[in-house]
Design brief:
The chain is built from 13 helices and 15 strands. With about 425 residues, the chain is an alpha/beta fold. It folds into 2 domains: about 1-325, 3-Layer(aba) Sandwich (Aminopeptidase), CATH 3.40.630.10; about 330-410, no CATH class. An 8-stranded mixed sheet has the order 1-2-4-3-5-10-6-7, with helices on both faces. InterPro entries: Peptidase_M14 (IPR000834). Its cofactor is Zn(2+). This is DUF2817 domain-containing protein. It holds the Pfam family Peptidase_M14. Keywords: Hydrolase, Metalloprotease, Protease, Signal, Zinc.
Length: about 425
């Protein structure tokens, strides 16, 4: 199969989405979105057929089932790589079911990385394994709803892990230990204060290691935004309204440091995280297909920045994430239960002298041992020590002062 498609690879990868050639037996498969010219989103059966075709055609690709939704739809993880690598990027696509552009961008990215024979793709996959959850909320996607079939916002479930979707993502992060987590979303604009083609934001949570935080900002400011702007898309910081004349920030409406959002949890778990949001509404009067293509193509432009970052800043990312994973074993420093990198914490939001650990009752341990395990938190029976890689996460799960705690453990101060 690969020898037959070699002649069309470069053109398929370089062409804009609208110009991908018509499907033929010897060309890469196309999504339902592409087949329709942007008139409709890819259906679940089309997605499954598309992924199966890519998997069969490329030995770079493997697909595994990482969970099942309440309505019995598969949660899948796609791995793209040519060999084992020390660096991993995870794309999480459409946690909100009514935000489809990220899913479409992820599907075409899977194909392009699977089929790509250009030097840039080969170089990327030599150093970096790319993991993709192409539809993180299949039930919500089928119903065109933000939440899953129970109405739960998956992107507010990365502490409690009550949903099958949240649990599957937690297990992937625990087991694969990605160095970068890239979370694709969409937003509704508020002209003229909040209306860019793309917004993005790094982990603001103050428990993020400084070097990981710095790399996440570098990913945003020096790679993702310039890549999008080079293709003609406007960019900005998610959650910040700005004056349309001066560009000065005038109001924050989202993007705080709460740990239950994947963007922040990624930082707490020592990965370089970034949220990306494409604007749903068009800036000018255009047809729905044309606007839908803009939504998806802006995401694809930003992804070019992510992959450039992975290649050019890989060594620095490896150093930052590795050091952050080791730092918790020193068991020093405060833990923050509030505040953000742009919102200094109140004294009550800082645990200046954290306990050695937390003791759980037998009933508490029985009730929450699965969630602790999915997070990757190390336990000693019913005792949960702070001296471990995920040191800062332990109080966020078990301390009475943490706003989204799982349960309240008994602090152990006898160190």
């Amino acid at each position: 199969m690969k020898s037959r498609v070699a002649a069309v690879i470069a053109a398929a990868l370089a062409a804009p989405l609208l110009s991908i050639p018509a499907h033929a037996a010897d060309t890469p498969p196309r999504t339902g979105f592409e087949e329709s010219g942007g008139a409709r989103w890819t259906s679940q059966p089309e997605e499954q057929g598309f992924l199966a075709a890519v998997d069969e055609a490329s030995d770079r690709v493997s697909i595994s089932r990482i969970g099942t939704t309440k309505q019995d739809r598969p949660l899948q993880l796609v791995r793209i790589g040519t060999r084992p690598t020390t660096r991993t990027v995870l794309l999480v696509c459409s946690q909100h079911g009514d935000e489809p552009s990220g899913r479409e961008a992820c599907l075409t990215t899977i194909r392009d990385l699977a089929y790509g024979d250009d030097e840039r793709t080969r170089r990327l996959l030599t150093s970096t394994t790319v993991l993709v959850v192409p539809t993180a909320n299949p039930d919500g996607r089928a119903a065109d709803t933000r939440g899953n079939s129970d109405g739960v916002d998956i992107n507010r479930d990365h502490i409690a892990l009550r949903t099958a979707e949240g649990r599957a993502l937690a297990a992937v992060i625990r087991d694969r230990k990605p160095d970068m987590v890239y979370d694709l979303h969409e937003y509704g604009g508020t002209p003229p204060y909040y209306d860019k083609d793309l917004f993005d934001l790094w982990p603001r949570n103050l428990n993020t290691a400084p070097d990981v935080h710095e790399e996440a900002q570098t990913l945003s400011l020096d790679y993702v935004r310039p890549a999008a702007r080079a293709d003609g898309y406007t960019t900005g910081t998610y959650g910040i309204w700005t004056d349309p004349v001066t560009g000065d920030p005038i109001r924050q409406v989202a993007g705080d440091g709460q740990e239950r959002i994947l963007r922040n949890m990624s930082g707490i778990k020592h990965t370089v995280g970034l949220l990306i949001e494409s604007r749903v509404e068009p800036l000018t009067e255009v047809s729905e297909p044309v606007n839908n293509l803009r939504r998806v193509n802006s995401q694809l432009s930003a992804l070019k920045g992510l992959f450039s970052f992975a290649g050019e800043r890989g060594r620095q990312v490896d150093e930052a994430t590795s050091a952050a994973r080791l730092a918790g074993w020193r068991d020093t420093g405060p833990v923050y239960v509030g505040g953000a990198d742009n919102d200094p914490p109140e004294p009550a939001e800082v645990i200046q002298d954290p306990p050695c650990g937390y003791r759980l009752t037998d009933d508490q341990y029985t009730q929450f041992k699965d969630e602790l395990s999915l997070h990757g938190v190390r336990t000693q029976g019913t005792y949960v020590p702070l001296r471990q890689s995920l040191r800062a996460l332990v109080p966020l799960l078990l301390d009475v002062r943490a706003p989204y705690h799982l349960t309240i453990g008994e602090p152990d101060t006898d160190c």
